[in-house]
C-alpha cells in the first residue's frame, strides 16, 4: 500500500499528470473515430515516447489505450457506428436508447461502467497478477477452442427478434472468415487469384461497412424519399440518476471481472470480452429484463462497456508478470517498455518496483480521468445528434473511408467496406442483425486454428476435448447457449397456442 501511495505521488508530478490527461483525451478522440482502433492510436504515438522518461512515456500510452476503448462507445451509442471493435456490442442497446431520446443516459452508463470495469481490472492486477497469469497460461489449444466456441454460441443472444436470422448471419460470417490462407498449411482458400485476399478479409473494414456505411445509406434513402419520414432523435444530455445506477451496479462489477479474466488470456481481446459479458448479462437478467435486451436496456450497455474496459488491466497482467502481451495493444506496450530499458517478467516487481507501482497508480488515475471526461463531455458528444442528416450521412462515409484506408493504407479495405455496407443495408431492410457476422469474423479463424492445433496435439483424437475439464466446460456451455433459446422459443410458442 505504501508503494502505491508513493506511486500516486510520482503520477501527480506536473509533467506526468499532463501527459496522462492528454493521453486519455487523445484516446477518447481516436476511439470515437470509426476505424481508428486503440492499437492504431498507441502505435501512432509510440515514437513520441522514445525521448521521454520511462514513467511519462508509458503512462501516455496507457492513457491513449484506456481512453480509446471508452471512446469507441461514443460513436456506437450515438450513430450505431462502433468507433472500435471493442464497442460493437454497445450498439445493441446503446443506439436503441439514443433512438428513445436517452442518448445522455446511455453515454452516462457507458462512462461510469467503463471506469468501474477498468478500475476493477487494475485492482485485480495489483492484488493477484501472478496467480491469475499462471491460470491463463494453462490455456492451450483445446481451451482456446472452447473459449472461441463459447463466443460463437453468443450469436443466439445477439440475434434480436429472430434467432434463425441471427444464426444465418453468423454462418455467413464464418464462411467469409475462411477466405485467405489456411492457418495450418498456408494454402490459399477462396482467394480467386486475388493477392489482396491472401490475408483474408479484415474484420474492421467489414465492421465499419456493416454498421457505419449501411447506416449512412439508410439515412440517405430516407432523405431522398422525403425528410418527413425521418424521426428526429432528441439530443438529450440528462444523466442517469443514482437510483438508476443502483439497478445496474451488479452487472457492472460482474462484467468488470469477466473482462479482466478474458483480458488475461493471450489472444483474446476487448471485442470478445464485450460480447461474452453481454451474453452473461442477459443470462443473469430477470425474465422481464431479458425481453428488453437489444431494445435499450442499460444493463446491456454496462455489461459490454465494463467488460471491454476490464480487458485493459487484465491484458497488462501477463505482460508485466510474464512478459507475454495479452493483446495487440500490449504487444506495442511491450516494445515501449523494452525501448525504455525495462524487461517485463517475474523480476520486474523486484528490480523496478517503484516504476511498477507508479504505473499501477497511473492506471487508476487514467480510469478516473476517463470517467470524468466521459461524463462532463456528454453535453458536447450529444451535439452530434443535432447535425442535419444531409450533412451527417456524407460525414459518416468520409470518416469510414478514412478509417478503413488507414488500417493498412490499402484501397482494397475501402472496397471491402463499401461491399459490406451494401450487404449491411439490405440486412437492415430484411431484419438480419449485423453483430453475428462481426463476431464470427473475429472468432471464426481462432476457433478453426485452435481446433486443428488440438487435433495435431492429440494425433487426430477428439477425446482431447473430453480430457481437459476447462475445454469440456466451455463446449457444454456453448451447446446449451445455442440450443436453449431455440427450445425455449418453441416451447413458448406451443404454450401460447394451447392457451389461445
Overview of this structure, please?
Helix 4 packs parallel to helix 17 and helix 19 (389-408) crosses helix 20. Strand 1 (180-181) and strand 2 form a beta hairpin. The longest helix is centred in the N-terminal third of the chain and has 35 residues, at 103-137. By secondary structure, this protein is mainly alpha-helical. The protein is globular. Strands 1-2 form a two-stranded antiparallel sheet. The chain has helices at residues 2-11, 14-32, 38-45, 54-79, 91-99, 103-137, 141-153, 163-177, 203-224, 242-246, 249-264, 270-284, 287-292, 298-322, 328-339, 348-351, 353-376, 378-381, 389-408, 411-429, 435-457, 464-467, 469-499; strands spanning 180-181, 188-189. It has one domain (2-499). The model has no long low-confidence stretch (mean pLDDT 82).
In short:
With 500 residues, the protein is mainly α. It has helices at residues 2-11, 14-32, 38-45, 54-79, 91-99, 103-137, 141-153, 163-177, 203-224, 242-246, 249-264, 270-284, 287-292, 298-322, 328-339, 348-351, 353-376, 378-381, 389-408, 411-429, 435-457, 464-467, 469-499; strands spanning 180-181, 188-189. β1 and β2 form a beta hairpin.
